């Protein structure tokens, strides 16, 4: 199990996986940069007033990045196809990770409120 103490450790994990698996894939590297920039903006402005709006977006970024590194294992996907799947399926990532199918009703947990 991974444990991150900083945002840099978190992003570096994904950067390292990309470097090891998809060398020379600028599309994926740019996508990671875009998600990192979005993460930076959210973290810079998070407060007790907007926490409940920002947390689902943070979960969305996490779902996108984790889904991306899961899918790069499959050589059948081009970088563009991989990102199309990520952007389509990231909202259901935690639902499936927790063992629910797409039709199942989930408990009222914040983990399922991905934006």
Q: Pairing-aware structural class of the strands and helices? A: mainly alpha
Helix content: 55-70%
Give the total of beta strands. 0
Oligomer: single chain
Beta content comes to: under 5%
Model regions low in confidence, pLDDT < 50 over at least 5 residues: none
How many distinct helices? 5
Largest sheet: none
Mean pLDDT: 92
Q: Please, how many domains?
A: 1
| Overall radius of gyration | 15 Å
Q: Provide the succession of SSEs.
A: HHHHH
Care to describe what's here?
This protein has 115 residues and is mostly helical. It has one domain (7-112). Helices cover 63% and strands 0% of the residues. The protein contains five helices and no strands. Helix 1 (7-21) packs antiparallel against helix 2 (26-45) and helix 3 (51-71) runs antiparallel to helix 4 (79-89). The model has no long low-confidence stretch (mean pLDDT 92).
Question: Quick summary of this structure?
Answer:
With 115 residues, the protein is mostly helical. It is 63% helix and 0% strand.
What are the SSEs and their pairings?
Blueprint: H1 7-21, H2 26-45, H3 51-71, H4 79-89, H5 93-97
Characteristic key phrases:
mainly alpha; 115 residues; single chain; 5 helices
